[in-house]
Amino acid sequence: MSSHAYLAYAALFLAAFLEAVPVAGSFVPGSTVILSLSALIPAGDLSLTGVLAAAIIGAAIGDSLAYGLGHRYPHRIRGIWPLRNYPLVVERSEAFFRKYGGAAVFLARFLPPVRAFVPITAGALGMAPGRFFPINIVAILCWAPAHVVPGMLAGEAYGHAGAFAGHLTMPIIAGIVAAAILVWAIRRWMWPSEIG
After folding, report:
1. Mean of pLDDT over the chain
2. Cα dihedral sign for 118, 101, 190, 80?
3. Could you read off the pLDDT of 150-161 as tens digits, one per residue?
4. Tens digit of pLDDT for each residue in 170-191?
5. In which domain, by residue range, is 51 found?
6. Number of domains, the chain
7. Rg over CA atoms, the chain
8. Global confidence as pTM
9. Is 191 in contact with 185 (CB distance < 8 Å)?
10. In a domain, 195, yes or no
11. Separation of alpha carbons 107 and 117, rounded Å
């Protein structure tokens, strides 16, 4: 295992955590970071357990803090910076939550534009903790493997590419970085009004 694996686990934790922070979650390509770093599992640089734990714990803490803020300050949420700068996103999150209720908590974990806003909205609109947290934990337990396993499979495919693959390390890394930037740019382009 890599001697600097703890940095990768910290990056995974932060990526999952920051995706749950209102507004900041729209700018952080957390899913892409998780997918990319998961490719290091087959080579033994990272462990599957460690990657899943970092992503799950980061997402759970981020969602919990966002829910807690909404629950504690339900009438002041719209006026808190940076939410006051994004009233359209807050309105869309509330509409999404009102339309789908408990399912919104589950679905939002898989929808980047609203993922960062639904937990705080759930808290602000009075969803009981006993309802929010079980749904949220199930969503996170489904979401984390849905991001880790494809990255792990890509890393495994790379590992089976043979001796020739060793000569392609830098182009592969450059390709992964370029793909991550492209996914992030497309996401920003598709939902520009949500993220400024």
Report:
1. 81
2. negative
3. 888 888 876 666
4. 666 667 777 777 777 776 666 5
5. 5-190
6. 1
7. 18
8. 0.74
9. no
10. no
11. 12
